């Protein structure tokens, strides 16, 4: 009798430790996801800021300036639900404006243009990176959260179900191309 | 930035991953970052000042061959001490799935972790059995880097998740500025790699050689690499053997000079390659490249734009392509020019900047790396661990 009780106790403790470990794992994934989301926000904001700066600097022709300004402004002001669409439109606008190598050259030749072009090139390269890291973290968290043990014991608490950030982040080819 | 890099393979054994880690560390040091590399090494090996030894790697049978790995209580303690003393902003683990330092670090650290997946081995049985443990360790990685699109694909299929592709780096100018050696010039084909490792493909080249020599008798084959030289030419007719020269193990300097000298570099590898650094080195030196059509190779060669490919393991196709190229100086010159232009994207200045971008992306808004108290076991869980 006592032996059975001890065994039940041992099993309960083992299950408890395992669940606590899983909860710790889940917590860590949420932390990682939040950090990745913050990094993605920072990169998107940076890209929109540089784009807006270029649009108002006068180095681009008026039509290109308006297109770029409009898209960058919309991306910065977008509500959470509209964000993916607005950021994708900024990617498209950037591709339209900087599709030609000649346009990139023209920006580089303007005073201060070289630094701006470099900053924009860096920003459009880092957005896909940050997005991939974010979605990777989201995927890992979702896989764990869909597991039985997490659902049955409600280990995730009230944390919202993780959502991937889907957008068109293809950078303008002429901007990221590296020629020696 | 304070950067910790973990190399899972012995520092005293030359290998692709070790060279990559060394060059990466030196690139960051030149930029003024603080870098510490944790690597297995024998106690008496002289180490550069930035390398911290994690102790001797133990040879154990793993995955079909004898691997030298670090594991166990002592190694884990060294990893924890290194993490604790380093106070890194980011830790960069190479080959995190090998049951060695990489996995131990993943297990012991918390905070921004970047990992590079070099090999694209299909999932082994051990990995399937240990999947739950592995997954718990791997999901701590904030950013994954694959060395090629091919390596990324295998990673996505076997482990889930995603990765950014950043190729391996090469010091392009080191190869581009090497001095050619006259005795290695004039109708020469180059091959660099282990002679007795069938995956490196020397047997395929040896089967193709009689046909190449029949069409162009003045051709010489220069082979650099370790292995049994007599066994390598055993299937070759007696009178053709003098056309093959074995150079043995050569220094980095001589490797660059060899690649600068040859008329054609042939990479007949039959599989197991996830990147193909030797092709990048050959292109850096301006050697026209003829390679087997492995996924990784085709990608490094810009879908065939920067070098020619032949059907894998097809000696006749290799011979046909080699004869055609050797008889067409204009095409060789074109390949030299295209290769040299294409290879700039693999230079450390580009690759290093990309890796630094990854570091900056994951450290933005995250705390520094610390030892993970949750994984030390029961004592730590209840706050009883001593530090």
Please characterize this protein's 3D structure.
The complex is a heterodimer of chains A (180) and B (387). Chain A is mostly helical. Chain A has one domain (10-164). In chain A, 77% of the residues lie in helices and 0% in strands. In chain A, helix 1 runs antiparallel to helix 2, helix 2 (62-77) packs antiparallel against helix 3 and helix 4 (101-109) crosses helix 5. Chain B starts with a strand and ends in a 6-residue tail after the last helix. The interface between A and B is medium-sized, with 32 and 29 residues.
What's the helix and strand layout?
The complex is a heterodimer of chains A (180) and B (387).
Chain A: H1 2-57, H2 62-77, H3 83-97, H4 101-109, H5 113-145, H6 148-152, H7 173-176
Chain B: E1 2-6, H1 16-30, E2 34-39, E3 51-53, E4 58-62, E5 65-69, H2 73-86, E6 90-94, H3 101-108, E7 109-110, E8 113-117, H4 125-129, H5 131-138, E9 143-146, H6 149-159, E10 164-165, H7 172-176, E11 188-192, H8 202-215, E12 220-224, H9 229-232, E13 244-248, H10 252-261, E14 264-267, H11 277-284, E15 289-292, H12 295-300, E16 308-310, H13 315-326, H14 329-342, H15 348-363, E17 370-371, H16 378-381
Parallel strand pairs in B: 1-2, 1-6, 2-3, 6-8, 8-9, 9-10, 11-12, 11-14, 12-13, 14-15, 15-16
Antiparallel strand pairs in B: 4-5, 7-17
InterPro entries (chain A): LemA-like_dom_sf
Transmembrane segments (chain A): 6-24
Protein name (chain A): Secreted protein
Record keyword descriptors for this entry.
heterodimer; A: 180 residues; mainly alpha; 7 helices; 0% strand; B: 387 residues; alpha/beta; Rossmann fold; 7-stranded parallel sheet; 6-stranded parallel sheet; 40% helix; disordered C terminus
């Amino acid at each position: 009798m006592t032996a059975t009780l001890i065994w039940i106790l041992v099993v309960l403790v083992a299950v408890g430790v395992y669940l606590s470990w899983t909860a710790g794992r889940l917590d860590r994934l949420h932390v990682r996801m939040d950090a990745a989301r913050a990094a993605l926000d920072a990169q998107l904001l940076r890209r929109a800021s540089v784009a807006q700066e270029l649009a108002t600097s006068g180095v681009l022709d008026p039509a290109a300036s308006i297109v770029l300004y409009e898209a960058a402004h919309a991306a910065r002001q977008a509500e959470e639900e509209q964000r993916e669409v607005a950021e994708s439109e900024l990617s498209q606008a950037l591709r339209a404006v900087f599709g030609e190598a000649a346009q990139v050259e023209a920006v580089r030749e303007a005073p201060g243009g070289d630094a701006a072009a470099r900053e924009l090139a860096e920003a459009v390269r880092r957005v896909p990176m940050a997005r991939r890291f974010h979605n990777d973290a989201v995927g890992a968290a979702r896989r764990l959260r869909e597991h039985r043990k997490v659902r049955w014991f409600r280990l995730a608490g009230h944390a919202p179900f993780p959502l991937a950030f889907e957008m068109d982040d293809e950078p303008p080819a002429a901007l990221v191309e590296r020629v020696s | 930035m304070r950067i910790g890099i973990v190399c899972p393979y012995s520092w005293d054994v030359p290998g692709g991953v070790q060279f990559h880690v060394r060059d990466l560390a030196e690139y960051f040091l030149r930029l003024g970052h603080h870098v510490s590399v944790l690597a297995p090494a024998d106690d008496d090996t002289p180490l550069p000042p930035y390398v911290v030894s994690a102790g001797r790697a133990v040879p154990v049978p793993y995955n079909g061959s004898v691997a030298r790995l670090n594991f166990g209580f002592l190694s884990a303690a060294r990893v924890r001490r290194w993490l604790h003393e380093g106070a890194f902003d980011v830790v960069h683990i190479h080959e995190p799935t090998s049951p060695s330092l990489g996995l131990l670090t993943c297990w012991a650290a918390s905070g921004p972790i970047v990992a590079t997946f070099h090999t694209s081995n299909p999932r082994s049985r051990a990995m399937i059995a240990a999947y739950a443990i592995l997954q718990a360790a791997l999901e701590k990685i904030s950013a994954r880097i694959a060395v090629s699109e091919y390596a990324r694909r295998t990673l996505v299929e076997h482990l889930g998740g995603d990765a950014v592709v950043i190729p391996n780096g090469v010091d392009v100018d080191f190869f581009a500025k090497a001095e050619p050696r006259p005795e290695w010039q004039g109708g020469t084909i180059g091959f660099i790699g282990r002679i007795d490792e069938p995956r490196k493909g020397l047997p395929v080249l040896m089967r193709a050689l009689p046909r190449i020599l029949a069409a162009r008798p003045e051709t010489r084959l220069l082979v650099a690499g370790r292995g049994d030289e007599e066994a390598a030419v055993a299937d070759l007719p007696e009178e053709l053997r003098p056309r093959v020269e074995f150079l043995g193990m050569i220094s980095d300097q001589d490797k660059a000079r060899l690649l600068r000298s040859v008329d054609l570099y042939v990479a007949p590898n039959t599989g197991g390659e996830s990147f193909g650094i030797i092709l990048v080195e050959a292109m850096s030196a301006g050697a026209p490249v003829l390679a087997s059509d492995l996924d990784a190779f085709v990608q490094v060669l810009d879908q065939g734009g920067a070098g020619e490919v032949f059907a894998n393991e097809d000696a006749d196709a290799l011979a046909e392509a080699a004869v055609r190229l050797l008889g067409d100086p204009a095409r060789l010159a074109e390949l030299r020019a295209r290769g040299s232009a294409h290879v700039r994207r693999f230079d450390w200045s580009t690759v290093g900047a990309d890796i630094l971008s990854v570091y900056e992306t994951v450290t933005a808004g995250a705390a520094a790396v610390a030892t993970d108290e949750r994984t030390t076991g029961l004592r730590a869980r209840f706050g009883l661990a001593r530090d």
